[in-house]
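SAMPLE LOG
Freezer: B-3
Tube label: C17
Construct: single chain, 369 aa
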Amino acid sequence: MSEPAYAEGEQLSTFAKAAVVIDKASGRVLYNHNGDWELPMASTTKIMTGYVAVKYGTLSDIIEVSETAAAVEGSSMYLEKGEKISLENLIKGLMIVSGNDAAVAIAENVGGSVERFVEMMNETAANDMGLKHTHFDNPNGLPSDTHYTTALELAEITRYAMDDPKFCEIVSTKSISIPWDGHEYNRELKNHNKLLGTLDGCIGVKTGYTQAAGRCLVSAVKRGDMTLICVTLSDPNDWADHTSLQNAMFEKYKPNELTTTDKVIDKIVVAGGLLGYTGVSADKAYTFPTCSEDDIKVDTGINENLKFPIKAGDVVGHGMVTVNGEKYGEFNLTAGDDIDLVMPGKENFWGRLKQNMDYIFGYWLKKVK
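STRUCTURE (predicted):
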């Protein structure tokens, strides 16, 4: 076995050609070793296959297995020609025992053909997820020169997939028994992902192997309020690497609530300070995993030319979250209270002035009470 590679700026090592760990909620990259290398990904391809199937298919559909699907080589859930099985159970066979036969049966049903389904996979990657270094030639990950992704983009695909409750339910299943058409006994499926039950908090996701791609693995681990996704491509030591990478990142990073929608983050001066200040809040909540080494900034700015009256909830400014100089989020600032003051104009000057004085008096009266 070759010496492990080291990611820049990290003491952790991995035998993988490429490895990343990201935070599922924010997408922040916590560990990156050659994460932008285009590499084959074997059966981790099926994360996209399963996601597209859940998103566009009807889980209760009953599918008759074609001869083409039943004859597919490699890992299998042992589908038989003419067998009738639900799309949901096909997805279970796809993700739990990595059925290449299930992948083709799914593609034929959801896409109408394998070719069209693969187009859907590529369209989802490019258009929905904005990925530029991922291309699929098939729904199962069998070797092909133009079938590839990167560790970073596979992690992003997994982020999307893990937002779907049904997908999460399936990939976290250790074993399951499902009906087997034409047999007096059920089909027993046992998950190939042995991190389920051995790595604290592991909730998925997918294994993969071909001679061309090597061992590939994607894991998702949830501990407390934080879920981390780890991807390794071509890693002969993947089980141990995922355990050490996940544990190390949970040790180093903690979820940090940078903005909330219910806490005052800035203020508006009211009536030149005569009425004090009105608090403003962010309209988006941002929670990021951060560590003691991070330089975190939450910058806010109130609009210079505010026009009164202002109602609670009105946008009055803008803010930005940066971590180590990199922008991670933007948000609007919204007023916490009504501000009913109006500027006296030439028309009805005294009436508007009286309106403001009545407002000021009422404001302070409420404060005294």
